[in-house]
Structure formats: C-alpha cells, structure tokens
Design a protein that fits this description.
The chain is α+β, with helices and mostly antiparallel strands. About 40% of the residues lie in helices and about 15% in strands. It contains 25 helices and 17 strands. Strand 7 and strand 8 form a beta hairpin. Helix 2 runs parallel beside helix 23 (about 525-545) and helix 18 (about 440-450) packs antiparallel against helix 20. The radius of gyration is 23 Å and the shape is globular. It starts with 7 loop residues before the first strand and ends with a helix. About 55% of the residues are buried.
Length: about 575
C-alpha cells in the first residue's frame, strides 16, 4: 500500500464533542477499504445488542483505494445497525461523498455517541468543527437545509453535504440521508440513526492528492477503463435512459411489481417509462464525481402558480427505476406528473423511496380489504393511483399524529403485525421489497443477501439470464445458492474498492488486479475472491450476532401467489436454497 492516508480513520464522538485519528493499516491492507473495512469497524465499535436508535450505535463511512484515482470508483459505504431490521444496516451513495472523504485525507470516518442538542459536523481536512444546528432542526426539507449549509461552509465544488429531512428527525425507520440533492444513502434507515444522534448534517471537504507507483501503467489502465465506460455498449443505457429503461423491459417480461404485487405488469407502464420521461420531461443529465457516464436523469416538472396567469414554477426531480416502481406501478399511479410530484415530496422529506412506496401499497390494500378504515388514516381514503392521498400520507408518516402512522413509520412488517395483512406485507428480512419479481433467484436474494437488497447478489439478473439462456443451469436450490453466494462475494470486493455496481462489467478480475497494482497492491485473482468471501461471512456473522435467524425468515404469501416469468415460486425451493446459502456462510 503506497498511499498511507487511505488507512487513516477519523473518529468523532458526538457525546464528548471530540475527535481523533487512528491509522489502521492492517485493516486496509487486508480488506482494501469500503465495505470490508466498514464491517470490521462496525463489529468493533457497535456493542452487541445496542439499540439502533441509542447512543451506542455507530455510523461508519468508508471508501477504497481506487477512489479519486479511477473513473466510477465513486461510492461511499455507510455501515450501522439498522433501526428497520435490527441487524446490519448497509447503504451506498455517490455524488461527491467518496471524492470528498478521500480528499480530506481519510479512508473512513466513525461517528459515535449522541449529541444532547442538534448539531452538524464540518470536516475540512484535518479540521473538525461541531456546528450548532438548532436553527436547522425542524427544517423538513432536505433541499432547504442543504442550500443554507452550502452558503456557510467552505469547499464549494469539492465538498459533500450529507443531511436529513423531517423523516430522519422523526426517527422514521426507513428515512434516508441525502447528498448533493440528487443522491442518497437510501436503504435501512441511516436517516433515523442521524436523527437519533441529533446529527442534522455532515459536511466533508479536502484538497489532498495521491501518488501512483507506475505512472505509465496507471495512464494505460485508466484509459482502458475510461474507454470501456464511454465507448463500449456496457454503460450506454445508463447514460441514455438511465435505470428507468428497466420499466418497459420488466413490464413486458412480467416482472414489474404492480399494485402491491397483485400483478407483475402495469397497463400504464408507458406513462412512467424512461422512454416517455426522456422525450417529454428530461431536463438534463448529471453525474457523480469522477464518473463519465452521467446516469442521473432530472425531470422538469412545470406547474402553474395558483391565481397567477402565465406564471410557472419548475421543479427538478431526479428519477430512477426503483422510485418509479415503488411510487408508480406499485401504487398504480398512471399519471406521469403525479408520480414525479410524489417522488419530489419523498426526496424533500427524506424517505427511502422503495420502503415508503411498499408501505403505502400495503395501506391501500389494507383499506381495500377492510383491515383499516378512515378512522386509522385520519379520514384519508386510499385507492390505487391517487397520488394526492399518498402525498398527504407521507406527511402523516413523518409527523406520526396517531398510533397507526407511528406503526407505518416502523415499516410494513411492523404495521402488518399490528393491523393484519401480513400475507401481503412485502418485506424480506424486515426490508421492504425492491422492484423485481423475476423468479426464484430474486426472492432467495432478498432473503439471503447481507442487506436483503436486490444489489447484494443480483438474483433478478440471474433469473433473467437463465430465462434468456445466457446462463445454462438447472434451477436447483443448491445451484441458485451457490451462484448467489459467489456473485455476492465478488461484489464485496467491488464495494470495498469502492466501485459503482453499474461498472461491474468493466471492473473484471483482471482489470481490478491491474488497477490495484498501480496503487502498490499485489493480489491474485484467488486472493481477491477469498477476501470477498471472508467479507461476506463477516457481514452475515454480524447479523447473526444481533439476533438474525435464517430459519425465521418470512416469505410473504403474495410473493408465492403472484406469477413470475418463471411461473409461480415453489416455497420448498426457496427454503432449501436459504439453508444451502447459510451453510456456505458457516463454512
């Protein structure tokens, strides 16, 4: 390891308003950075059985050695104990977060304790400041607080501003942290952990530069990676239509969750498709720092001011596949502008879009089936497609004016355990489902993945590859478990470097080895794969330490009833695959 600054870990204690630096070369040498270092630091610093919303929980941000050095090595890993699931919280964000953290001279930041009064932290290189955030507390808009902090902090153009909105302050278990307005640490409730610590925001900036071992070889491998990203078809769809291109593909395939997964095709899918948005709403594309692809697509929502003829306000709305599924097809919303309005409110208040969409879908069906009434909803009537009711509902979930909305703020599984409808409460391992109902591999992925995310092991992709005969394999429980474990283990390497998963087709084993060589690391392909496998086992062991029991995993009945492109899912295959997967974890 040539660059020693990557091994510097900044510790911040909110209780004592103090900070210090430790050099952890042994961790970064063995686990590279990112996810590998973060799971080790979380296991060390978070006491077993800690309350996720108590002062003993910690937040770990970590980056890897390729950040600032190679294109699309642009993500930051956030690890914490999740208030939604009670075990591993793991979330990733781009924007300028990774570049800013690395430029500040750190490989990781660990935030401990809790402040008695609202605070935000400003890390500018070697200087750490605890700023009074009393005037920001109560600001519901993530956009608003970001705008004010931008005007008062140094580092314009190279800093990151991570902040929460009203949902995080009110400890909604699936609230998110927003960076640079259009990027998010979305899943598993990092926003609520910020809120529990009275931490409104974290600002990071720096100006450090980094050496390479062999400049000639560095330029060569940099060009190879860059050319693949901008000249090959590998990433073309992400630039042109973004992940929203998946809407029509999955709709045609019969894998797009619709109306709380009553169906897997949406008759109004065209209205929320990447193609329609690009033609009629796309205002501009933007990118995370050090990314040439620009997959972030911003729609322009043009609305007239009330009582003002010919005067309009224009709102920029970032859209991706996941919020289009969860706040579109999952809720049966066919009105394009209605979906964009709901997405904008979700971003402003700081909710994870996937979780809140699944929660609202359950609410709609619970009302439809008579499990709840307007008594619980405070006179709100929910029906598929009524985006105005959903906009009002998320404000109630944030403010929690009665017991019903307090339970909704805890997640769909908690709400269903209280009010009924567990069969159609779509959560896996406590985490609300993502936008893929493609077959058995996707369901097994949701259940077994370290963070119960579709990005853990790409089960949805395996389903589609088998369907298209791109992968020849028999769909036995053992084979599925083996494939998912192998893929998830390699993804630990990528999330430790830390590389955007959209570029996983670019950062193949040989490319990763060559890139690391220019940074002073020497690994073989087998060594990297073994490290990935070890990191995955460490993550699962943290979950087991915190009370996670694979044998207690619930499979929502709705997921077994609704047909996938592979037909209906056999519960026995799912159960056997889960056993086979966790057997590998224990090896």
């Amino acid at each position: 390891m040539l660059d020693k600054t990557i091994a510097k870990v900044l510790f911040i204690d909110l209780t004592k308003r103090s900070f210090w630096v430790e050099v952890r070369e042994e961790l970064f040498n063995k686990y590279l950075g990112g996810a590998g270092v973060a799971i080790n630091l979380l296991s060390e610093e978070c006491p077993q059985g800690a309350d996720p919303l108590g002062p003993n929980n910690v937040i770990v941000f970590a980056v890897g050695p390729l950040v600032n050095m190679f294109p699309m090595a642009s993500k930051t890993a956030a690890f914490f104990k999740s208030p939604l699931t009670g075990n591993l919280g793991e979330s990733y964000c781009g924007g300028r977060s990774a570049v800013a953290l690395r430029s500040a001279g750190y490989g990781a930041i660990v935030i401990k304790g809790a402040s008695e009064t609202p605070v935000y932290i400003a890390v500018h290189g070697d200087n750490v400041h605890f700023r009074d955030a009393a005037t920001y507390w109560g600001m519901r808009s993530t956009h608003g607080v970001g705008r004010i902090i931008r005007e008062n902090e140094e580092g314009a153009g190279v800093r990151t501003i991570m902040r929460i909105g009203g949902a995080g302050e009110k400890l909604v278990r699936y609230s998110m942290v927003v960076t640079e307005t259009y990027r998010h640490f979305g899943r598993l409730g990092l926003g609520a952990v910020f809120g529990s610590k009275k931490l409104k925001a974290l600002v990071i900036s720096g100006k450090k530069t980094f050496p390479v071992v062999n400049k000639t070889e560095y330029r060569k491998i940099y060009k190879e990676i860059y050319d693949k990203e901008v000249k090959s078809p590998l990433l073309q769809k992400y630039h042109e239509l973004g992940t929203a291109s998946n809407i029509l593909v999955l709709n045609e395939l019969g894998g797009l969750p619709t109306k709380n997964l009553k169906s897997t095709s949406f008759d109004a899918g065209e209205n929320i498709s990447g193609e329609l948005l690009a033609e009629f709403y796309l205002g501009r594309r933007t990118a995370c720092a050090h990314c040439p692809v620009a997959c972030i697509h911003l729609a322009t929502l043009r609305e007239p001011y009330e009582d003002e003829s010919y005067f309009y306000k224009t709102t920029w709305v970032s859209y991706d596949y996941e919020p289009l599924f969860s706040l579109g097809s999952m809720l049966g919303i066919s009105n394009t502008q209605g979906v964009l309005k709901l997405m904008h409110e979700v971003e402003l208040l700081g909710f994870d879009a996937m979780s809140v969409g699944v929660v609202l879908a359950w609410v709609t069906e619970a009302m439809e089936t008579g499990l709840i009434s307007t008594k619980e909803t405070l006179d709100l009537k929910f029906s598929w497609g009524d985006y105005n009711a959903y906009i009002k509902a998320i404000k109630h979930i944030m403010n929690q004016p009665n017991e019903f909305y307090t339970y909704l703020a805890k997640g769909v599984e908690a709400a269903a355990l209280k009010y009924g409808g567990l069969d159609f409460a779509l959560a896996f391992g406590g985490n609300e489902m993502p936008g893929y109902h493609t077959g058995p591999a996707a369901i097994i992925n949701h259940l077994t993945g370290a963070r119960h995310s579709h990005l853990d092991s790409g089960g949805y992709s395996l389903d589609q590859k088998v369907l298209a005969k791109k992968v020849e394999m028999e769909f036995t429980p053992e084979k599925i478990a083996e494939k998912l474990f192998e893929e998830e283990a390699w993804r630990q390497v990528l999330s430790s470097l830390i590389v955007c998963f959209f570029a996983r087709g670019v950062y193949t084993e040989d490319v990763v080895i060559k890139a690391l060589n220019t940074m002073g690391y020497n690994f073989t392909e087998n060594e990297l794969k073994n490290i990935g496998s070890e990191m995955l086992k460490l993550k699962q062991k943290f979950k087991l330490r915190e009370g996670f029991k694979p044998e207690n995993l619930k499979i929502p009945k709705r997921a077994l009833e609704t047909t996938t492109p592979h037909g209906k899912i056999d519960e026995e295959i799912i159960r056997e695959a889960v056993k086979a997967y966790f057997k590998k974890v224990q090896e």
